[in-house]
Amino acid sequence: MGNETLPKQFIFNEKMDKEALYSLYTDDFAYIEEIFATTLQHFDGDFSNVQLAYENANIEDLRKAVHKIKPTFGYAGLLETQSFCKNFEDKCAAAGSIAELSDAYTHIKNVLLEAKDIIENEYNRLKAFNANPL
Amino acid sequence: MSLNCIIVEDLQVAADYLNRCCEKSGQLSVKGHFAGVSDALAFLNNNVVDLIFLDVEMPGATGFDLLDQIAYSPKVILTTSKPEYAFDAFEYNVTDFLKKPFTYQRFLDALKKLPPAAAEVSENTITETGVDHIFIKSDGKLIRLNNEDILYIESMGDYVKFVTGEKKYITHNTIKNLEEKVSKQSFIKVHRSYIINIDKISNIRENGLFISGKEIPISKAHKQEVLKRLNII
Predict the structure, then answer these.
(1) A85 to chain B: nearest residue by CA?
(2) Last residue of a domain, which of B67, B89, B112?
(3) For residue range A71-107, what is the model confidence (pLDDT) as tens digits?
């Protein structure tokens, strides 16, 4: 009885920091859906820049490309991903050759792709939720 | 009062979020979003804003490069995900430093740091006129401009741009107001948006004149007066 007037809540993927999301968007789920949509629209382009810089063995461009994509994950509540990006940036700054970054690059590439999957999945769930909030 | 601002940010989601914060605040009117420094500079060369939300690392050039190149000093709030830029931010005297992503409350706190009259450079931007010079207020300083150094004065809405051979100065004023204040011996209004230094004209065509390579239109209403003032033989 008492729960009838409470708004329906969306349960985010456990890898997304719910408090971070609420601090940015409160419970405006339509807005969060919009943010996820924008993120996904631009993800592939930004990710390609990361790959291209690595393939060209250009460490500074690689650092810049990861730096650019990094805040994306903050806006999506993926704080751990954001933190991985920061660590990778630091490794780029310290690296003397692209070979030194080989393992770290493989790791960050997987982290970024996993983050995209999470955002994509949450976007689709959120879209369905927002279409039928009651 | 609403301040005019622009967003210079290469990450779309960050620009959208910031734009939304601006709208929500009711204190800011966003005049444009630019993903790089060159586009922002092109806009700022022809438009005056009170505030720039500026990312630091962008393709091609940094936000600090932009600050080095603009002809006046709007207020700046840096938006970056790299706190290491805080020292540079201090050097450039920026109003605040927002680390992305920031909350709406943090955004409002940054706005509170703006001086109350951020948009009001000064109502009285010409403080003194002499026979051979004027003083203008620009970037919080009084600057003496000798008439002989001024090429032309161009309207930018509520602002005007004084163009000399060396620099451009932007002040809060209007061409209409300046028409009364500048030396009539040296200057003449040739168009609703231009007052020119008559000694700087290099050549005149049907509907325009050239000063230091810049073509300036002459309106029909002012053409006769301009021709009268020239030493035509």
Answers:
(1) B81
(2) B112
(3) 999 999 999 999 999 999 999 999 999 999 999 999 9
